[in-house]
């Protein structure tokens, strides 16, 4: 009965990994999906130039020995610890959660995203439901809006995460776009519409509004009675610019990237209302949305998050591990940029060491990285300083789809066709390969 079906195309983002998996090349590199990967530096020796001292806050070494362990996915220690505690707790059972999920998880998530001192939290004006990660939170929010909000139009930024348009249109909303990060955006005149805003670390551009710009957006939205729907997929990866005094709004949270719980599918939708009474009625309606979709959410991931968020020392440990991930990403940005502004020697294979060890000798010039990026670009035309100016997991390189196709074909580097690369997928070993590929794509 399904003989007539044509093959559907791969998902534009997840399909990058499918293509990558099929490629037999030993130098292939997957920069498509925004998932964190580890890197291990075995040891370093010698004397360094100033730039690198600044980078590593360290006095010595010029030879970096790097062990390629294949950039593994990372499970945070604090997550392992929380899971151990859950396993050891024999009082825990596997009963169904309520439709709205784990109550502790919901309360802690609302506090995490809105701030414990938020008047909305203190006055019980927020209703929070546990959903299937960020995507599920967006979808439940969209279904709720399609049923109960007087306006059916949602404006999403252009560009935005590739899944946004379908999440909203399949829920029954009419999707339109606004130009992101463009002063012209302030000329919005569609009264009452829903506006999707990335809460922080905008995907794919890595460009966030400044605090001052957030305030301008807030005022504009208020004056036009627009309803904000914040998508917070990268909380803690960068500063949360929104939060204060937005009034009624929706927030979709994900714990995929900030707690490394990708496959656990743990997230939350919060709706800030005008009163506790409205919030409880909203919750009753959210239950009607959720029940026929998946009945109730899974218990494990939400229990991990609740365990970590409610314990001060575990929370602290989480922020430290999160910072280590963010710092490695920032260091990848700095080093990728440096490959353009400094001379470097190609990787040498040191057969004296075992085959997986590669060795780089990098020579750096000058002492101020940002200054050097301004003009001292060797070889690759254009200003690449956006590599370090952008924030979050991705660099929106500015490479076009032809250049991306070239890099995939000739260099086996996989990324989305809009030129977005996941910095978390890079390592010292693979950076020169990427730099070479970009150089070749831009100068050919
Ligand atoms: N929103 C944005 C902007 C994202 O980048 C992502 C993940 N790439 C999501 C939502 C959803 O992520 P998840 O469902 O894995 O939590």
UniProtKB/TrEMBL annotation:
Catalysed conversion reaction: L-aspartate + 2-oxoglutarate = oxaloacetate + L-glutamate
Ranges of residues in domain Aminotransferase class I/classII large: 75-336, 380-438
Broadest EC class assigned to this enzyme: transferase
GO cellular component, one term: mitochondrion
Transmembrane segments: none
GO molecular function: L-aspartate:2-oxoglutarate aminotransferase activity; pyridoxal phosphate binding
InterPro entries: Aminotransferase_I/II_large, Asp_trans, NHTrfase_class1_PyrdxlP-BS, PyrdxlP-dep_Trfase, PyrdxlP-dep_Trfase_major, PyrdxlP-dep_Trfase_small
Family: Belongs to the class-I pyridoxal-phosphate-dependent aminotransferase family.
Misc. remarks from the entry: In eukaryotes there are cytoplasmic, mitochondrial and chloroplastic isozymes.
Protein name: Aspartate aminotransferase
Organism of origin: Sesamum angolense
């Amino acid at each position: 009965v399904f003989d007539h079906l044509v093959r559907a195309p791969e998902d534009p983002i997840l399909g990058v990994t499918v293509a990558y998996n099929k490629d037999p090349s030993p130098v292939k590199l997957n920069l498509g999906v925004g998932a964190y990967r580890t890197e291990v530096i075995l040891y370093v020796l010698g004397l360094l130039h100033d730039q690198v001292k600044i980078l590593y806050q360290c006095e010595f070494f010029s030879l970096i020995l790097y062990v390629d362990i294949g950039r593994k996915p990372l499970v945070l220690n604090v997550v392992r610890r929380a899971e151990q505690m859950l396993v050891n707790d024999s009082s825990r059972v596997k009963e169904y959660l309520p439709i709205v999920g784990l109550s502790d998880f919901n309360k802690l998530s609302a506090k995490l995203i809105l701030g414990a001192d938020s008047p909305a939290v203190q006055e019980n004006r927020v209703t929070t439901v546990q959903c299937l990660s960020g995507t599920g939170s967006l979808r439940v929010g969209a279904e709720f809006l399609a049923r109960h909000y007087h306006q059916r139009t949602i404006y999403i930024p252009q560009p935005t995460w590739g899944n946004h348009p379908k999440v909203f249109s399949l829920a029954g909303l009419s999707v339109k776009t606004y130009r992101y990060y463009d002063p012209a955006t302030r000329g919005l005149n569609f009264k009452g519409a829903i506006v999707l805003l990335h809460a922080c670390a905008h995907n794919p551009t890595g460009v966030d509004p400044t605090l001052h710009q957030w305030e301008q957006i807030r005022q504009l939205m208020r004056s036009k009675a627009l309803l904000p729907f914040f998508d917070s997929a990268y909380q803690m990866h960068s500063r949360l610019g929104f939060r204060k005094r937005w009034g009624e709004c929706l927030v979709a949270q994900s714990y995929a990237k900030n707690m490394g719980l990708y496959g656990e599918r743990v997230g939350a939708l919060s709706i800030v209302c005008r009163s506790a009474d409205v919030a409880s009625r909203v919750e009753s309606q959210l239950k009607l949305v959720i029940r026929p979709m998946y009945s109730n959410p899974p218990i494990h991931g939400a229990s991990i998050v609740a365990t970590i968020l409610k314990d001060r020392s575990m929370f602290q440990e989480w922020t430290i591990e999160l910072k280590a991930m963010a710092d490695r990403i920032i260091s990848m940005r700095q080093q990728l940029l440096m490959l353009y502004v400094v001379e470097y020697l190609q990787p040498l294979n040191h057969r004296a060491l075992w085959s997986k060890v590669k060795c780089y000798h990098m020579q750096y010039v000058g002492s101020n990285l940002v200054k050097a990026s301004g003009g001292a670009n060797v070889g690759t035309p254009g200003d690449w300083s956006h590599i370090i100016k952008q924030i979050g997991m991705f660099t929106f390189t500015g490479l076009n789809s032809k250049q991306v196709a070239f890099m995939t074909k000739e260099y086996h580097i996989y990324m989305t066709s809009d030129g977005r690369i996941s910095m978390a997928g890079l390592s010292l070993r693979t950076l020169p390969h990427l730099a070479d590929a970009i150089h070749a794509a831009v100068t050919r």
